Amino acid sequence: MESDVFNPSHELRAAVLSCLSAFLASVSLFFALFNAYFNQSYLLSGLEFAYFLVSVYVYWRARQSKVRIAVSVAYIYFLVLIVAVGTYISVFSSALVVWTCLFPVINYLLLGRRYGLLSTGCVLLIQTLVISLKIHQVNHVIDYRMLMNLSGVYLSLWILSHIYEVRRKFSEQSLERMAARDALTGIFNRHALLHHFENQRKVLSNTSLSVLILDLDYFKKVNDQYGHNTGDKVLIQAANLLRDLLPNHNAYRIGGEEFCITLNNVDVDKAVHIAEYLRKKFANHTFHVSGYSIQLTASIGVCECAAELTLEDVLIAADVELYRAKQNGRNQVMVCGSYENEPEQEALSTA
């Protein structure tokens, strides 16, 4: 997928890290030169120049969206190190300690709520220890009013960043649910199928994965005879029936009266038995909708997935079997063998 709506946080954080690393690369290079030539603070200058190089690398990785959270954590704490060292060796009048207030925002933007909360607390603890050491060991005179104001700003930004991240994550999860669910039936949609299928193939690369495509027979007659509103209610009940019958597997509405079921760790033989179980349940089920009692049958195509096949390949193969079931009289299960061995296709006709 060009854009993964199910994980927008990753793209957002990559974009933030890209802009932030570009900005910090410029700032760190400037201060590295400034501290070397004007302050003769070679330790701080060396750290800042090293951070410039790291920022360039992180920027390059972020532009490719290849930055893991461990890299973000290391990048943040390198900056924490620079600020802590600068706070300790510089006079307070230089106001270098003010950079501490940047960390609540950076932590939550790059690390999320949980790690952002932990990291922001750690930064506060580190800077508190550094300032305490500076006061007691160096006997440095400090304006405590400045420290109180600095602490107030830090805590305020911490609270605001936390609230923002909590609300952002809640909105993101709401959008994820909307993007993944069929608006009518409430089960997963085709977009979710693509996302889940790719994840299942990665996680379950050494196990079987089978796909069923189920289509309600003569559903058009329901719409023609009882109206589309009644037809929609039948689809909702059909989706609920699928969820009740297969609670451990995902069901998707992929178009009209057509549903897809993915069966993790299920080979083709077991998938056929599950499909036959579904077919019988639908044949014996009565849909009570708008005062009508409606009976429908289902035709099902079954396909076991090979590792090299795309979702489109699998759906086409299962759809071919579904079409054969329709052509053969409906209310049937048709199955194609594993694509790895390409056995001869067989049909399961029902009495």
Task: Give an overview of the whole structure.
The protein is of the alpha+beta class. It has 10 helices and 9 strands. The strands form 2 sheets. Strands 1-3-4-2-7-8-9 form a 7-stranded mixed beta sheet, sandwiched between helices.
Count of discrete structural domains: 2
What overall form do the CA principal axes indicate?
elongated
Helicity range: 55-70%
Q: Can you give the mean pLDDT?
A: 88
For the largest beta-sheet, the strand count, sense and barrel status come to: 7 strands, mixed
The gyration radius over C-alpha positions equals 30 Å
Counting copies of identical and different chains, the oligomeric state is: single chain
Task: Provide the low-confidence segments as ranges.
Answer: 1-5, 338-351
- List SSEs in N-to-C order: HHHHHEHEHHEEHEEEHEE
Distance between the terminal alpha carbons, to the nearest Å?
Answer: 43 Å
Structure annotation, total helices: 10
- Percent strand equals 5-15%
Overall strand count: 9
Strand order of the largest sheet: 1-3-4-2-7-8-9
Structural class: alpha+beta
Map the helices and strands:
Layout: H1 8-37, H2 42-63, H3 69-89, H4 103-137, H5 144-180, E1 188-189, H6 190-203, E2 209-216, H7 219-226, H8 228-245, E3 250-255, E4 258-264, H9 268-283, E5 286-289, E6 292-295, E7 298-304, H10 311-327, E8 333-336, E9 346-348
Parallel strand pairs: 1-3, 7-8
Antiparallel strand pairs: 2-4, 2-7, 3-4, 5-6, 8-9
Helix pairs in contact: 1-2, 2-3, 3-4, 4-5, 7-8
